What we know:
Blueprint: H1 3-28, E1 42-44, E2 58-64, H2 69-85, E3 90-96, H3 106-116, E4 122-124, H4 129-133, E5 141-145, E6 151-156, H5 161-174, E7 205-206, E8 226-229, E9 240-248, E10 253-266, E11 270-276, E12 284-290, E13 308-311, E14 315-321, E15 329-335, E16 341-347
Parallel strand pairs: 2-3
Antiparallel strand pairs: 1-4, 2-5, 5-6, 7-16, 8-9, 9-10, 10-15, 10-16, 11-14, 11-16, 12-13, 12-15
Amino acid sequence: MPEAVANSRRRFLIDAAVAMAAATASARADEGRMPDLDGAAAWLNSTPLSSKAMRGKVVLVNFWTYSCINSLRELPYLKAWAAKYKDAGLAVIGVHAPEFGFEKDPANVRNAVGDLKVAYPIPIDSNHAIWQAFRNEYWPASYFIDAKGRIRYHHFGEGEYVKSERVIQELLRENGATGLDENMVSITAEGAEAPPSEDVRSPETYVGYARAENFASPERIARDARRAYGLPARPALNQWGFGGSWKTGAESGTLESAPGKIVFRFHSRDLHMVLGPLKNGTPVRFAVKLNGVAPGDHHGSDTGADGTGEVRQPRIYQLVRQKGSIKDVTFEIEFLDPGAQVFSFTFG
């Protein structure tokens, strides 16, 4: 083995050992007292809980929001851990902290929790009171708390599920649990909850002017005003644009008159959009095309093979799931009714 390669391998092994030791130490560290859970607009699946009432249990506090693709892909693990370790003393609490305005509505959260079949306690943190108490900044974010009420580990974002489950087991054993099943949970998920592909070259993209990037229509975005837009003729990768009459607010764009279109040139297996219907709840019909034709076998869970679908409630919609090799594709969605609200694109 050449010396340079051998040295590189040794550095890798040393770095891996250091990372593993740091992870173990982090799992046992004391990161401070668990803040209280005051300030929720309402609680689902439980009466209001407090940090004091949770003493004696291992607690996993997860911050999420139901239109966040990263939160949705983590949900199958949280549900599995809650079921597997409930009798051993684990309590999972899913703090629903909204990103978009429609996620502050308890009725919308209640509907989403029911659709997603989440059974553990959900405080609806519409004003981010619990979020601020934890000084949290991320979706999703998980805080692992021992039976004495001390935060012992945290993880931000998706992934590292094996490490997280090992921390749960460690804290449960510290609390006297015996006979734990050492095997990791096995997850099967579909739709938006399915794990992402390994070939994602398109970033989460917002439509509202406060965070919009890579807008490629010939016209500039008009803030809080109606404007007629032309579709970009040849969008480059990760560019997007409007077609038709749209009014763009800080967090979303609203179709003022039908029909109206949006195009996006993307590279990933899945394309999702966070969409909302008319404010009075009237459904909005749409049709999706990929490179100018109906998606066929590449349709998502919220579209048919002919590309058609409806926006009936404000949430994330999976519109494309490519089969086979992943390529750069031009996505087009045409809304056939006015009032469609478009918040963001996410990929997987």
